[in-house]
Amino acid sequence: MLNRWPGRKTFLVLLAVVGLGVRVGWIWFNNAAPRSDFLFLYQAAREAAAGNFGFADSAYFMSFPYQLGFTMYEAAIIRLFGDSLFALKVIGALF
Questions:
Q1: Are residues 56 and 79 both part of a single domain?
Q2: Cβ distance 22 to 90 under 8 Å?
Q3: 3-class DSSP state of 64
Q4: Which UniProt keywords apply (predicted)?
Q5: Residue 24: which domain range?
Q6: Which helix (H) or strand (E) holds 43?
Q7: Which of 2, 27, 33, 53 could disulfide-link 89, Cβ–Cβ 3.0 to 4.6 Å?
Q8: How far is the C-alpha of 20 from the C-alpha of 40, rounded, in Å?
Q9: How many CB atoms lie within 10 A of CB 47?
Q10: Which residues contact 40 (CB under 8 A, 6 or more apart)?
C-alpha cells in the first residue's frame, strides 16, 4: 500500500490541505502586525465596520481610490468575524 501512488483526486486534496496547513501555521507562528499602507487600510476597515465612512475623504483615498474595494472587503470580514487580524489573515490565505 505504501508503494502505491495516490489517485489524482486524493493527491490534489492532500496538496490543498498541506498547503493550507503551511499557510495557517505561518500565520499562527509569525504574528506580524500590519504596517504602513496596510495599517491605514485596516484602521479604515475597522471604521467602516463600525459605520463611520469619514476615512473616504482622506488624502490617501483621494490619491488611491481603488483601495476602497479592499477596505470594504476587510470591513465585511470584520463585521462577520469581529475585529480579528487572525480571521483576516486566514481568509486571505484561502484566496
A1: yes
A2: no
A3: coil
A4: Membrane, Transmembrane, Transmembrane helix
A5: 1-31
A6: helix 36-49
A7: 27
A8: 27
A9: 17
A10: 60
26 and 39 belong to one structural domain: no
Q: How confident is the model at residue 28 (pLDDT cuts 50, 70, 90)?
A: confident
20 and 64 together in one domain: no
The residue assigned the cell 483615498 is 61
Residues 6+ apart with CB under 8 A from 53: 47
| 38, 75: one domain | yes
54-75 pLDDT, tens digit per residue, is: 998 999 999 999 999 999 999 9
Its pTM stands at 0.77
Q: How many CB atoms lie within 10 A of CB 11?
A: 11
The residues, any chain, with a CB within 8 Å of residue 71's CB and separated by 6 or more, are 41, 44, 45, 48, 55, 61
